[in-house]
Amino acid sequence: MPELPPGSVRTVVRAPATVLATAGRDVDPTDPDVVALAADLLATQEVSPGCVGLAAQQVGEALRVFSVDVSGHPKTRSCHGRFVLCNAEVVSASRKGRGREGCMSVPDFTGDVQRARRLVVRGQLPVTGEQVELETDGFEAVCLQHEIDHTNGLLFLDRVSDAHAIHPRQTYL
Amino acid sequence: MLAVTVIGADRPGIVAEVTGALAAVEGNLEDSTMTLLRGQFAMVVLVRTGSPVAEVEQALARVSSQGGLAVDVRPVSAASPAAGAVQGSSYVVHVNGADRPGIVATITGVLARRGVNVVDLGTRLAGELYVLTAEVVVPLDVDVDELRAELDEAAGVVGVHVRLVAVETDEM
Ligand SMILES: [Zn+2]
């Protein structure tokens, strides 16, 4: 992961903000604005307790950029540390499992979602634009799918497995 | 806030008719659950409206008589979603076994004695097989191993199998 300039903490947007339902545009990962956004995503993620990923849509921009950092999370198996991906897409996904997810942009609900536990993702790193392919599993795989969904304008609410799969939150963050 | 409950023999159009009647009296649907139970379609809907209760009842009476639906409308206090909620951890209770009277009462009796709050519960009967699934909130001061032991014992009495599974939420 190339070094980024210091980022600033941005306000996290909440549903039903339109931007969360807007598919992101492709970005030029070497564009200074995109590099600044990447830094902002990481900065915002770091100050948000329990936050393991953040997409551009969540700070109000419909772009294909997101950050992830599952290191230190108790459920993490494979882990690629703290990184940002641009224009990411799923190359292959297998071993579906169902889990309950929460999202900073949907603070009042959680939802039961089927996601692959084995995943290969392709994307570009900010600054250099280097094309990378990540192979991961478990919690990081789920997190990547959640963030890629955000960059495509999808929330976990769009993915829940049945009519009883959205739950009011029992305890607040 | 009004609680509107509707039940009737299932057919396409029930939801559209009931919600259409509510929309006509400026009723805003908030939380609701609607499900098919053995050929009976059941709806429980919380509706917020500025219209008088009598007007809502009148609008639904038409739907009820024409559509063969049993409808009930009653004012309820407009509590916030979290009000009255038990602070604790979410679990799912899975029960299955041979059908007999008292399964739900026995299992939920154990939960009630421990102050465990049922937030969602469904049961299904197919032939002899009875299945119950519930989402519950276990207060933080309840010993879950003890609760499991009590559920196992109670389940044994009514001849069913019970599992209490923690629900973990992954924050993204
Ligand atoms: Zn999210």
Walk me through the structure.
The complex is a heterodimer of chains A (173) and B (172). Helices cover 17% and strands 34% of the residues of chain A. Chain A is of the alpha+beta class. Chain A has one domain (18-168): Peptide Deformylase. Chain B is α+β, with helices and mostly antiparallel strands and 172 residues long. Chain B is built from 4 helices and 9 strands. The radius of gyration of chain B is 19 Å and the shape is globular. The model of chain B has no long low-confidence stretch (mean pLDDT 94). Bound molecules: zinc ion.
**What is the average per-residue confidence, as pLDDT of chain A, rounded to a whole number?**
95
Query: What order do the strands of the largest sheet of chain B run in, or round the barrel if closed?
Result: 2-3-1-4
Any low-confidence stretches of chain B, pLDDT <50, length ≥5? none
Number of separate domains of chain B:
2
Q: Overall mean pLDDT score of chain B?
A: 94
Q: Helical percent range of chain B?
A: 25-40%
In the CATH hierarchy, what is the superfamily of chain A?
Peptide deformylase
N-C termini distance of chain B = 34 Å
Instruction: Give the quaternary arrangement of the chains.
Output: heterodimer
Helix content of chain A: 10-25%
Largest interface: A-B, 27 and 19 residues
Strand content of chain B: 35-45%
Number of helices of chain A: 2
Total individual domains of chain A: 1
What would you call the structural class of chain A?
alpha+beta
User: Which secondary-structure class do the elements of chain B indicate?
Assistant: alpha+beta
Bound molecules: zinc ion
Biggest sheet layout of chain A? 6 strands, antiparallel
Protein name (chain A): Peptide deformylase
Binding site for Fe cation (chain A): 103, 146, 150
Organism (chain A): Auraticoccus cholistanensis
GO molecular function (chain A): metal ion binding; peptide deformylase activity
